[in-house]
Amino acid sequence: MEDFWSTTVQVAGGKENSLINRRMIFRILGILLLIEAMLFLVCMGVSLFYGEDDYIYFVYTALINAGVGSVLIFLGRHAKNLVTRRDGYCIVAFTWLLFTAFGMLPFYISGSIPGLADAFFETMSGFTTTGATVLDDIESLTHGMLFWRSFTHWIGGLGIIFFTIVVLPIFGVGNQVLFKAEATGVTHDKIHPKVSIMAKWLWTVYSILTLVETVLLVFGGMGWFDAVCHAFGTTATGGFSTKQASVAYWNSPFIEYVIAIFMILSAMNFSLYFMCMKGRFGQLFRDDETKWFLGSILAATLLIAASLVVRNGYGMEEAFRKSLFQVATLHTSSGFATDDYMNWAPFTWVILIYTMLAGGCTGSTSGGIKMMRLLIVVRNVKNEFRRMMHPRAVLPIKVNRMAVSQSTVSGVSTFILLYLGCIFVGWLVYMFMGLGLTEALSVTVSSVGNAGLALGAFGPAYSWNALPEAGKWLSSFLMLLGRLELFGILLMFSPSFWKKR
After folding, report:
1. Closest Cα to residue 340, out of 302, 306, 314?
2. What is the CA radius of gyration of the chain?
């Protein structure tokens, strides 16, 4: 670890120096904390607007952020203007941890969420857009606290670093490195050579979706405050609601359909929307991953709807609506709910576990394995069967009529094995803590997949407050692990990452 504290970095010419530029890391982390301080001031304005006294807690937290951020910037003075890949992974990992650690302070200092583990869990669930909550009386929170809780979703939806690149393009030559370190995945559709411009276009799409949904929810009977908070949670595929009963509180088919549709839209590749804005609508309907994703949602919805009609006596429309919403919320890794699926037939739980694992599309705000990876694996399996019949045949795997490289296929297979391995380990640890087999599995899958809902005692009718304290810390780690898609966090635990090479 001593190499981390070296002030030198790798430079052109081959001179043997440390590979981590700590001064630049301090500088960037300091600037990010100052930006988070400004976000607290937005929430302070919400509290003042509603005449609530808890605005002072956002002031305190903003001052703490500003103080620590200023110290980090001071430590990062005279930093070399270079961000390596190792620097990028360090900055992204520490940013998410720091944003959560400081982001929980309004909850903790005000007593809204008194437990340290609980406050950290709730904030990590917000930033990672997981949507799991430990709160048993959400309505008791003030408007300012509820707004901050939902705002964490919206900030973390496309990524904290990504958000910052748009707000303040401070990183210069490091934009590309930081983007790649945070926006992990199978493919990155570069809609513009400059990351800062691409970020602005994607955030434009993100903002439009949020605005349109907000207006529709208000039209459907929600107040403006609730509509904004739910739009934040939907477009970020997060799932925090301002009501303990979640979306079921309104008992409105119109609101349920609007949120279900926007959850699905938000789980599709945002770069495709940019193509549509450019007039290339055909690309959206020709995209293989999108077709697989929508087909998966339709199949799961119809299967569960049929079960609800036959086994639970639901009417046709209600069965379709309840099924669509619950499938959408789990397939897109959101955390909203309109029905308690623990009252459904057990075989439907298996389908819901699949939707949690599958997740949404690459280039979206959703979690899970992602449909692109599943698509590549399924086509690879299909090719293996063909290869048994035709050993000498050249059988490339194609997605959107383009051949996928063997290195990508290998990377996808490795990711899925590691993903399932992490779930298996988490499953065992939760069972060791005393959770039942079903609860332990579903909590792990939900945490790693950023889904927000689980089974049994952690289903939609309950909060996650029943988790032991150690389980809340573990779940917080699994949320971050899943949000940064495993490698970005696990890499930090590799001794070779910190050594001079």
Report:
1. 314
2. 23
| CB contact at 8 A, 266 and 231 | no
Which of the 8 DSSP states describes residue 499? S
> How much is the average pLDDT of 375-394?
82
User: What is the model's pTM?
Assistant: 0.88
Token pair 């002031």: residue: 59
Give 193-252 pLDDT, tens digit per residue: 555 666 777 788 888 999 999 999 999 999 999 999 999 999 999 989 999 999 999 999
Question: How many Cβ atoms sit within 10 Å of the Cβ of residue 173?
Answer: 9
Calpha distance 302→365 (Å, rounded): 25
Exposure pattern of 82-99 as b/e (b: 16+ CB <10 Å)? Answer: ebbebbbbbbbbbbbbbb
> Bridge partners of 402?
399
Apex 35 CA angle, 32 and 38, nearest 5: 155
> At 158, phi and psi to the nearest 5?
-90, -5
pLDDT digits (tens, 9 = 90+) for 257-301: 999 999 999 998 888 887 777 777 777 778 888 999 999 999 999
How distant, in Å, are the alpha carbons of 79, 397, 411, 413, 416 from that of 378? 47, 10, 14, 11, 12
Six-digit token string for 200? 């602005």
